[in-house]
Amino acid sequence: MNNDNLKKAKSLVINGGIYMVLLILFILIIVKDSSFLSFRNVINILTQSSVKMIIALGVAGLIVTQGTDLSAGRQIGLAGLISATLLQSVANPNKIYKFIDSNSAIASIGKALGYDKEPTIILCLITLLIVIIIGAILGAINGILVSKFNIVPFVATMGMMIIAYGANSLYFDYTGSTPVAGFSSSYSAIVGNINFGSFFFPRLIIYATIAILVMWIVWNKTVFGKNLFAVGGNPEAAKVSGVNVTKTLIIVYVISGVMYAIGGFLEAARIGSASNNLGNLYELDAIAACVVGGVSFSGGVGKISGVVTGVIIFTMINYGLTYIGINPYWQYIIKGLIIIVAVGIDMLKYKKRN
After folding, report:
1. What is the pLDDT of residue 63?
2. What is the pTM of this model?
3. What is the crossing angle of helices 39-64 and 203-221, to 10°?
């Protein structure tokens, strides 16, 4: 093989190697069971991708700035557990917050918010706002640690991961250390389907689509989006050109915290229960999906379309492996290999650019 052919082969591996590997894996799944391509499975894959999409959109901005977030999964779990405890059905005999037949001041507030009857969509929105505020605060703390105290994102978010899990576990103990379930019909309906006769369309896909459009606008049509890529490409050059690097980093971490909170709120409703283990390792799937979609750990490179593609591909592989009965432990090995290959190819691309 001459030098030109070697260069072409190397370029093919660098630019499309990970997609080739995933395509081969996808073909093997179809060969194993051709029914995998049914319409219902496609809808299931898109539905399972929806919450992961929202989470990955939060993680992607951090990767663009040469950062990461190991606390994503635990923040999702915290938001999910809080949402679950606040939105249980009144008819649930194991309801955590029981304000009926109580004369306390807290009971009065609870009744005013609707705790003396089946929680409505208004209470769902109030709960969503509560977890968003918590997520924004946790994200801001991460951003301050990284931007003002110059703590490496890996270390800062690892600390936040432990803190969030500890807080979640303490709250879980308070609830009785059993999975929280029995949600109100309003909360469950949020992640239900829109029915058109015999045809149905999951609301989760709509939420994911809205998140994609919003983040596309933020990344491509705002000053913040331009600053985001400037900071990711070269923080020092961005600072010299007038970009407020500290402010940009804090905002991107706040946005990520908000996305995790929304993801946790929806995920608890989708699963139908919540515990302190909700969200465990979700950050790994999100990071892997972003890297597969072309968001570079080297910073300053990434597209929303790439994130969408990465999430759908990764979910399709996860769903497909489960569908054909692959042992979950083998699935971990396969996903780990995909992450290593994706990051390795990303490093090759970075060397080529430089």
Report:
1. 96
2. 0.90
3. 30
